[in-house]
Amino acid sequence: MLQGDRHLGAGCEMTPVDDDGKPADVADGSVESAHEPMAKVRPGAPSAAPLARARVLGALFGDQRTVGSFGRFHVVKRLGAGGMGVVYEAYDPDLARGVALKLVNVAAKDRETALAEAKALARLSHPNVVPIYDVGLERDRVYLVMELVRGNTLRLWPEGRTLREILDMYQQAGSALVAAHGAGLVHRDFKPENAIVGADGRVRVVDFGLACEADEPARATSEPRRVAGTPRFMAPEIKAGTAITPAADQYSFCVALAEALALARGPTPRRIAAVLERGRAADPATRFATMGDLLRALARDPARTRRRIFIIAGLAASVGAIAFFAGRQTLSEAPDACADGIARLEAAWPPAARSTALARLATLGAYGQTLRPTLEPRLDGYITRWGNTYHTACLAHRRGPESDTMADRRMACLDEGRHDLAEAGKLITTADASSLVQLPRAVQSMRDPGSCLDRAFDSDIEPPPSGLLPQISLWQVRIQIWQARFEVGAGRYDQALATASAAVVDARSLGYQPLLAEALLLEGQALLKLPERSAAVPILTEAFQAANRSRARALAIEAWARRAFALGTSIGPDGAAAGLDFVESEATGTASAAFALALLYNNLGTWELSKNDRAAARNYFERALRVQQDNDLGELELVNIRVNLGMFTEDRHRGDELIAQAVAELTDRLGANHPDTLIPREQRGFATIDDLGQAEAFLTPVCRAYELHATLVADAARCWTEVGLLRLDLDQHDGALEAMTRAADRSANAQEAAAYRTLLRSDPHAAVQQLAAAVAAKPPKPGEPIWKGLSRAQLTLGLGRALRKIGDLRGAREALQRTIADLEPYVRTNPGARFERYLGRAQVELAFTLLSMGASPAECAAAAKAGAAWLQHVGGPSSAITLLRSCTG
Fold it and tell me: Alpha-carbon distance 190 to 252, whole Å?
């Protein structure tokens, strides 16, 4: 967050310049979106402006018909421009991905201020704000590196949409403005062109180029602001140069939304029109108190609320009231009264509809054809378990030993399972090829019916105060929480965030702390899965506090565990374990907290890894595994404990067994081809299988399975690159070429694979050029992450191999020695098959290079001995081992 960055106010007074360095009058024209395909020429711009722009672009990037460069960036094409800068699509080799590169147009005197403001904006974390990855100064130009979002702006997107669809999208955009206001910023140029709907359906607000720190409303009019923005969307107070407050963004937002709703199918309801009218009132004091209040007013739908209450009341009546509260009859009076559980559950998703929906999945591509055998038995088993649990709970209540309060809790628990089945039905029935991976997760996330019989329900959490608010309000929030939990489990994190955030608002109005803690916990969980997970820290902190106040110990410990993960992996490891002694003692003394305790230890292990303390991480992973096994915990999230311990245990054989167990369970629950299963399958082939032939045979079907998913091209490329290297180790030239070709064809970022493909096609000179350029683009930097050094070492190994092929033996020796020097310290402290392979390959190649140079046995003995030992250990070709041993004398 940006509190305390008081220099931001100066940014409102910076002088923007055109591409030719002259001051720009941004108030007179439209500042186009950073991601807009074409920039518009401002009305009244001089005819020489395009020529000036062309001169500057030529100086920066050369001929725009070809790829150019700017600093470390490879520039692909220009995306758009406005008064505050020009944006390009570029490739960032440090981040190994495509990015949007914005060059900020400010006068020389303002560069340091612009740079400081850009760095502050980079810390604004919210799922609906386009993230800034990096900022800097290059060639006297301030630049920002942002997420490259492909999609339509909110100017183009609404055409032909329903009113509800448009309101939902603008709710996301409004959430970004709420986040900015919370950080003390005013966007100052919100308009449809500055919000993009990505391919994932998530809105990102972009172009904070005019953002500045909010003024006090009573700012003296004798200190007028410079007028900047887009006139059509500009609040009257900005045009007048007076105080700039968050109310200005509220005005722009309402103007934009009103224009969008004019394109919707059907008229705008009067209640919405009234909200928009208030939001764009001429007097800022007449508008809503906050942007959040405006969004809540837009979301308030009386008809929808009435329908929802009716549904919730019906759910409570059909399952709870009818089943349990018709009176405690004797079994002889109503022998079959508890036998209708499955019929009640299947009403949520009838068998015929279920069969039709599952059969349809096979029409949705290769991955869809694999899903029914995984999903159908899981659904059938769930329905049977739910019916049995219902029967047991119903009988227990009718026989009289159980209180009405306990019966209410059990029925609420079973109602959640009924809700989950209905939601799974909707998801499976409406799935398309892009959402198929959500389906196994969704089925796995349904509330376990067996947990509804757990004695932990008899907790010491205070019931809600009677008469505080109508009981139906509690049901409303409870339904929202169920929905958010289901969406988190299904991997629908954007939807879960929106649902949980609404639940938090409603739970606050109730004032019932346990419900608020649950809603906050789910909001934090959703944020943890989105790009800027640091935003989850304050949410999870409040969740812990609310749960702790209401003595909901299991909730409190889970919130603390997730907060520790967020701190340790985003903000920094310092402070992530503060208060551990207290939390751990609370967890070990609370029967219902076993899941939270296992999660806590697993997350603390991850935290220790962020500090590169493998021994401490192993200790926590071991403790997490013991808690899981001692309590027979079956939550899908905890399967990762075995993967984590398997990756970092010192016993390679045990590590392989642990990951194999995790893969077997994930295969059973999600299917062999689900991404969550493929990742540990790949990790096993990379990290714990030493034998080259076994690793190649194990990884090849994993690579093919990645190809079933259109969104996993980078994973497929990484996998095929490793298979290609393994085949090369085994002297399988044609197989290696086939694997490297598949990798290079699937990802433009697979530089290593593309270069090896060139080398294996007998063009070593071209391969040298490719690899030398790739290595040069990744120069060593002090304090750089380990993965960057490892990536550079992989490319340097390939360069050494290619140099040997063209006869540049001295160059090859230098490259291979550098590879070994980079890899040896890492492999010593981080053992694992994959990087041991790179080190072994480099030692083998160095020994062969020295032999080709006519080196004496004494000169090549060390590399040859190490290379031969590695090949012997991993089952390498005997001919190579024999040749290397001849060098050792």
Answer: 6
Q: Which of 224-233, 692-701, 717-726 has the lowest mean pLDDT?
A: 224-233
CATH number at residue 852: 1.25.40
Same domain as 165, residue 134: no
* Angstrom distance (rounded) from CA 862 to CA 150: 52
Helices (H) and strands (E) in the chain, counts: 36, 11
What pLDDT sits at residue 552? 85
| Whether residues 185 and 250 fall in one domain | yes
Q: Are residues 756 and 781 in the same domain?
A: no
Higher pLDDT, 727 or 749: 727
- Cα separations in angstroms, 144 against 319, 339, 382, 718, 743: 55, 64, 50, 28, 30
pLDDT in tens, 99-112: 888 887 666 656 66
Q: Are the C-beta atoms of residues 227 and 238 closer than 8 Å to each other? A: yes
pTM of the shown model: 0.62
Cβ contact 667:677 at 8 Å: yes
Buried b (16+ CB within 10 A) or exposed e, 58-93: eebbeeeeeebebebbbbbebbbbbbbbbbbbbbbb
* Residues of the chain above pLDDT 90, percent: 35
Q: Are residues 410 and 298 in the same domain?
A: no
Assigned token pair, 511: 């004032």
Question: For 624, how many CA atoms within 13 A lie in the half-sphere containing its CB?
Answer: 28
Predicted pLDDT at 633: 87
Residues 333-344 as b/e (b if ≥16 CB within 10 A, e otherwise) read: eeeeebeebeeb
> Which residues make Cβ contacts (< 8 Å) with residue 194, sequence separation at least 6?
31, 33, 34, 153, 187, 205, 206, 207
**Tokens 């053992």 identify what position?**
831
Is 275 a domain residue? yes
Nearest to 101 by CA among 123, 126, 76: 76
Q: Is 317 a member of any domain?
A: no
pLDDT digits over 258-286, tens only?
999 988 877 888 889 889 999 999 999 88
pLDDT in tens, 747-766: 888 899 999 999 999 999 99
Residues 617 and 640: beta-carbon distance below 8 Å: no
**Do 399 and 493 share a domain, yes or no?**
no
Quick one: DSSP state of residue 29? S
To which H or E segment does residue 274 belong?
helix 270-279
Structural element, H or E, at residue 89: strand 85-92
pLDDT digit string (tens) for 380-439?
989 988 988 888 888 877 776 666 667 777 888 888 888 899 999 999 999 999 899 999
Write the CA distances from 105 to 220, 707, 836, integer angstroms.
Answer: 29, 43, 48
DSSP state of 789: H
pLDDT at 376 over 60: yes
Overall number of domains in the chain: 6
Domain that holds residue 428: 329-458
User: Could you tell me if residue 583 is inside a domain?
Assistant: no
